[in-house]
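Fold sample X.
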Amino acid sequence: MAQPSASSLVSSHRASDSGLQIHLHPLVLLTVSDFITRHTLRRQQGPIVGALLGQHTGRDITLEHAFECQVVAGPQGALLLHQAWFQDRLQQYKDVHKDPALDLVGWFTTTPPTGPEAQHVPIHQQIIHDYNETAVLLAFHPASVLAGGENNGKLPLTVYESVYESQEADGDRSMDLDGQQLPLNLKFHELPCGVETGQAEMISVDFVARGGGNAASVDSSAPSMGKGQASQAPVADKAPREAGSQPEAKALNDSSLLSSEDEELIASLTARANAIKMLHTRIQLLRSYLTSLPPSYFSAPPESNGTTSEESPATGQAEINHPILRSIQALVHRLPLLIPSDGAAFEQESLSEKSDVTLVGLLGDLTRGTKNLREMGRKFGIVSDAKQQGRRGGMRNIGPVYEDTDEVFQTHTLQMGQPYEWTPHRNA
């Protein structure tokens, strides 16, 4: 029996009858991309298979967590999940994620952009038969990543649900005789998918984005920099320059170190600069489109502006696309909402708030200065009293302590202007 091609596993019905909505969390994307990256760099053999954890509420399915899975060869050579290992790992994840309670909602793997292949069917059937009959498939497309700009900025993935459809012979439904039903085959429906982010995930994604922006690729074949590069120099040339090069290298290394606050500031400024560049690029694109339109479209009366996008314009002029023009007009009409209607009142209010903030800062500085002056006055008084006590005479201890078998004579403190006073103490 010939295996079906990749296109035959995808249902011919474009619209899904289930109405399921998929909410994908960024943590799943990070886990899947990390798994694929490690699998590729380590040159591991075998398919990339993992499980998806989330919640299924009504017609909404959330994909919140993911973990990689082990696969084994089945009786007929088909790849299946390791049953004992998968059950233990799934139970561990359920014990950890109890609030809210997460369950197995699907699995992920890599597929061509055309859709799942025949080798993916046994694993999917195992999951829907043993764990969840409504499990979905998250298919990641590495070919779309290699294509780069050809993906039109979309995520290189597709979410499928499984359905059983009858096999029609040459498109003729009249082949059913005496109530005989045609065999049912497993098909995949594409589902709409959206990205949903939680507060904790925003923090983690921001940390990963900042780390990725500061990271640099390391080429093992290239010579190392800094101290490693100096160590590769010949010994004869290194010895005379060693004494003079160490202070310069140390100063260079000290100047290149950045604190965590500096790195965070640089990452934030870089993100804002990229956003401004992107905004400038989009504005220039809109301006170039508007300037490329035929002049008659703007100068002619409104009733004569009936040119449609299907009409071929002159050479060097863009086609008139009314949906794009309406979107541009709506964007222009929303700009006044971002600009205050009364500019003078807004500037006065901003100046007043700035003055209040500055005044509070000055009051804080004044309070701290008063506290410092008070502390200095207290310390000055303590020093002055000590000096005066030193001039009049302080407390002094003089004379030893004499002991006798019958009496113990102890010397008392001698005050200025007072005679010695001896007090005998009898031993018990």
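Fold sample Y, listed below.
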Amino acid sequence: MSTSNDPDHFFQTSPSLSHSLAESKRKNQKSKNENGAPIRLPSKILAIIADPSHPTNAVYVAESAGNVRRVVVDTDGKDTIYRGPTTPVTSIAISPDNLRVLAGSWDKSIWSWSLSNRHPLVRYRGHTDFVKCVLTLRLGHKDILVSGAADASIIVWDILSGGKLHVLKGHTRGVLDLAIDPTIHDLDENAQHGTKEAIIFSSGSDREIRRWRIGLEAAEGLLPQEPILAHETSVYALRFDEDGDLWTASADGTVKCLSRSRQFESDTTIPHNDYVRAVAIEEVGGYVVTAGRNEDVKVWDRGTGDLIHAFEGHYEEVTGLVMLDQRCVSVGIDGTVRVWNLKPGDLQDAKSKHDEEQKAPTAYDAPAQEEADMASGLTEEEDRELAELLQDDE
């Protein structure tokens, strides 16, 4: 009797094995596509942010191999790497003075490096489980780091000293994302010294969205203390638009716009056929961009909620989106960085090309590309754990 040594075949019944083989073949075939001009990295990508110094052509990405990498999307530059963690990096931020890169990790800490020479700096320890999200801001004369973790806590840190300023508790499950309320943070009249306090929104696996008032001397839940309950389950992403309304992406398969004028009640709901991991706002064209488990990057009319176009390219779950001017950059578990042009002419060309391909589909060749089997940077056990964690966040 023949025996398979493929780890994907372990503990599978015949139907599940058949599905797994079919899914592997589908991914291998789809991995050949060049849609979105893919920049291929050697491990899974778990997060993305824009480079504040080059906001139209560069990003930072978090890799499962434990690296933070700067990628220049116009030149395929990907050699600036910040190393240190031996576990996956889940989230990234740049310090307000633009001198440090900070990253949350599975090892329960936040790492930091000099942005210019990539030397490790302060390491922030205090969480008791995986760090899921980080952001930075300036309060008074101090640069501040805020982190959320699977331990359901939010910690506020002094970036320079590494000291812990506040610990916020309220969520009952892991904290998945953080966002600064722009209508409060921008009220500072002396930007050189930062605002005295800021309002932070947090979302979690408990489906709650909470608000916090954070200052140097004190931090507390913002009254009313009842959380915003707009979704049925985990809320993965929080993004404010220019009007100050809050867009959310959830494992319940919806993206919602929570209207500030209606006390953050849902104003618009965009349904999907699977959970949604990321949302981005393109202000010039009036688009909302979403992505998640079903691999497509979808562009919606922000006013009507109508689907304009779905970009096909990723062959695994999409984990992050960021806007660079009128381009959307997406990253995913497939280890690729892809760029989608959202200018009206480019968007119309993409739609027309897609329509033509639908009329005359072409089959991919059977053999898999070498890129389809890129090393994830994880052990087999860690690879399974990552998949389980993505499921647990639901």
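Sample Y note: The first helix runs from residue 14 to 30.
Also: The longest strand covers residues 131-139.
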